[in-house]
Every structure is written in C-alpha cells, then in structure tokens.
Write a structure and sequence with these properties.
Helix content is about 25%, strand content about 25%. The chain is α+β, with helices and mostly antiparallel strands. The protein folds into 3 domains: about 110 residues, OB fold (Dihydrolipoamide Acetyltransferase, E2P), CATH 2.40.50.100; about 70 residues, no CATH class; about 220 residues, Chloramphenicol Acetyltransferase. β9 and β10 form a beta hairpin. α3 packs parallel to α4 and α7 crosses α8. The longest helix is centred in the middle third of the chain and has 17 residues. The chain is elongated, with a radius of gyration of 27 Å. The chain starts with a strand and ends in a 5-residue tail after the last helix.
Length: about 425
Amino acid sequence: MIDVLVPVEQEGTQAVVRAWLKQVGDRVEENDPLVELETDKVAMEVPAPAAGVLREILLDTDAKAEPGAVLGRIAPTIEVTGESARPEPFDAAGGGAQDRLRRGTPAPGHQPRPSTSLGTNEIRNPELRLSPAVKRALLQHDIDPAKIQGTGRDGRITRADVDRAVEAATRVQSDGPRTTAQPRVAQPSDASIRSHGIPHDRMRLRIAGNMLNSVTQAPHVTAMFEADFSAIMRHRDRHRDAFAKKGVKLTYTAYFVAAAAEAMKVAAAINSRWHEDRLEIFDDVNIGIGTALGEKGLIVPVLRKIQTLNLKGVAAGLDELIEKARREQLGPRDVSGGTFTISNHGVSGSLFASPIIINQPQSAILGIGKLEKRVVVREVDGVDTIQIRPMAYVSLTIDHRVVDGHQTNKWLTRFVDLLESWPAD
C-alpha cells in the first residue's frame, strides 16, 4: 500500500488533522483532496499520492500530525493487461483484491467509518462533498449548506466558508431578530451578568500558545525611534503609476521591507536565531509580514531572499503574498523560513505598541506605527524652524539574549536614515 504522508515543510508549526475528506473504502483519484491539516498559520489539503482505495486512516480528526508522519494508506489501482498480468490475491472474506477495489469494499479487518448525514438537503445534492468538520459546524449552527458558496477545490465548502457564514449571520442578528445562527450559550462566570461563549478556534489557540512561548522563552526589550516619511512619499508619488502599469502595487510596506534588509548589513545579529550553543546568523533575509485576517486572527507570509531584490521585486512579491493570504490560499512554504518579521500595526490606528511579541525562533521584530502629520523642529541654515511633517514611530523589539541596546539602536538608526534619505528617482 502507498503511504499518505504529512508534508515535511512545517517549520515552526505544529499541524493537526482537521478533517478527512474521504472515508475508509472510498475510491480516490491521484491528487484528489484527501485530508485537511491545520497549523497555527495555514490550513491546507493533502492530496492523494495515487489512485486507488483508501484502506487505512492512522491519524484521525484532531490528532497531531508531525512532518513526515503517515496519515493513512491507499491500496493502488491494479491495471490488468491481458494474459501477462499476474493473478490478484483472493481472500474468502472479500473476494479478489481487484474486485474489492472496483466495489470500494474495505480490506478485511477495516470497517468503513460511518458518515454524518445532514438530511434531505445532501440527498438532493449528491455532488455536495462535506468533510466531517464542516458537517459538525453546519449542524452546530443550523446552517443550510445549499446557501453557502464554497471556495474550496471544485466548489467544495470548507470550514472557513462556514465560519464566514456564521459571522455574517451573527451580524444580521445584531441588526434584527431574524438569523440562522445562534451563539452558543456558556455558563456565566457571574450569574448576575448576561454573557455568551465563543469557542476558541484552532488558529486562536495556536496564536495564544506561540505568544506565551515567545515571552516565556525570550527576554523582550523594545527601542523606539521616529521616522519622517517625506522622502518615501515623494518617491512613491513619482513612481506609483509606472509600477501600476507593470501590474505592481507600490505600497509603503515595500519600502519598509527593502530598508530592513539593507539595515541588516550594519547589525547582522538582528537577522539570527538563538541556539543554546551558538548564534546562527542568516545570510538570506527572509522577512515575514504580519497580515490581519479580521476576527480570525493573524498570519505571517514570508518574502524570501530580499537581499537579492530591488524595490520593484519586493513590491511584486508582497502583492502576491498578501493577496494569497487574504484569499486563504497560502501554502506551507509561504509561511515558513522567516528570519525577521515586520508588524505594520499602524494601519489599524495605533501610534506604537510595546512590546510587539517576537515571532519565535527569530530574534527581532519591527513595528511600524500610524503615519500622521506632526509638528517637528528642523534646522534650516543654522536656524530652528517649526515644520509639519508626515511622521511615524518605528520600534524594534529584540531578544535580549541575542543583542544589546548598541546593536538595536544601530540597526534602527540605519533603518530610519534609509527611509528619510530615499532618493526621489
């Protein structure tokens, strides 16, 4: 039989089995979606490695799935080509192996898992393929799957689709009495206070675990500078249309990423990883960009080898990654291998945040605050003048085991200088 394996590219994450899309005894074609895995950063489908019949499920729903572990096994389809074909084995319980493959009958000792029925709606729509996790969510929230537009492969409804439907129904409830989903009622901590409970989803639990691990493991220290964005605003105004004609969206984040990669040259330890016996300094600069997914949490897609890219290359790479993140189409490689992270928290209005928790096992994270016009003092021809400039606070939170204030401030000084002296052409 052929093993179905957990993808090995799971760096920095722990995967769990979210749902099996096929049951023992089901026929599958090569590359058919077979099982959903979920990590703290991404949900993904594992395809069938070959055509045949699913014979075994070794890691069931909610089981931990370590990289390279065997999820299940497929009995491959046997192709018969005339008299030269070898006879297939026969057993009294189920007939010949090829016969069982045709009928989808499980091998002896393996019983098909019962499927959950949603009633007449699924009978009327036999093509509607629902994973066990999706069925449970639909039943829990009393949602008709026919009213959900699936975004999965071949239009299949995913758990994310159900979550969005629940969120939409909850918003309707807040505006009026009619809704298709009721929030789960929780036992109140104080009987005199009305409340309701919202179960944690896996992404929120993984984020919580990672944040707690980071602040427990690394002593966080934050340095704060401010940066004048006048230069990069002038450059962006001058070149934004030219970039757009080439299909590239020029954002301020592209400047932050490019400047951060350049600043690594004056304080290389910022781009490193702490080990008990050594400090591993990376030659490649792979920067993750914190991307908010609304109420669902945060994900950090990674742009790789930025030291080899110009501003256009950085902007194009970011545009592609952020779009994939918002469409929930990121793969394991898109969220792994980061050596440094940027949190542009100012887009939601905050002036500064401290500390911004380090994305372990990295050594530092850059925070960008809200851009706003402020009154500043600038010297012109030896005379102090009061001017209005577009300013933002920028912070660098570091693992104090790795670097001290000297390297931290040296890096920030270079980063700010690059932004403020960006050439117009």
